[in-house]
Design brief:
By secondary structure, this protein is α/β, with parallel strands linked by helices. The chain has one domain: 2-Layer Sandwich (Transcription Regulator spoIIAA), CATH 3.30.750. Helices cover 46% and strands 32% of the residues. It has 5 helices and 5 strands. It has a 5-stranded mixed β-sheet with strand order 1-2-3-4-5. β2, α1 and β3 form a beta-alpha-beta unit. α1 packs parallel to α2.
């Protein structure tokens, strides 16, 4: 699992590349939390374009970051969901708490 970070104003864009499973979830959580601390952001876009697979540990990691952003009164969006990841969002209920957009540009317009 690899991460790419990009900041647009007060929004952190995190691109996930690979598989977000129990092997990767904790280290990904730590890396994202560190980046959030040093970036001074309050909005978050999770770019899932490169995400191939996600299990319950990945869902838990996403919910944790969502709660952190909400505690800052910020917005949390997910973008570029492929059909498999979109299905996981729907089955797990993530789609009820996290707005999804087709791309980062559209999500940024809604910030």
């Amino acid at each position: 699992m690899h991460l790419k970070f990009k900041q647009k104003q007060n929004t952190l864009i995190v691109s996930l590349i690979g598989e977000l499973d129990h092997h990767a979830a904790n280290s990904i959580r730590v890396k994202i939390d560190e980046e959030m601390k040093k970036s001074y952001i309050n909005n978050f876009i999770l770019d899932c374009k490169g995400l191939k697979f996600m299990d319950s540990s990945g869902i838990g990691m996403i919910i944790g970051r969502y709660k952190k952003i909400k505690s800052l009164h910020g917005r949390f969006y997910a973008t570029n969901l492929n059909p498999q990841v979109k299905r996981i969002f729907n089955v797990s209920g993530l789609n009820r708490i996290i707005d999804t957009y087709s791309d980062n540009k559209t999500a940024l317009k809604h910030m």
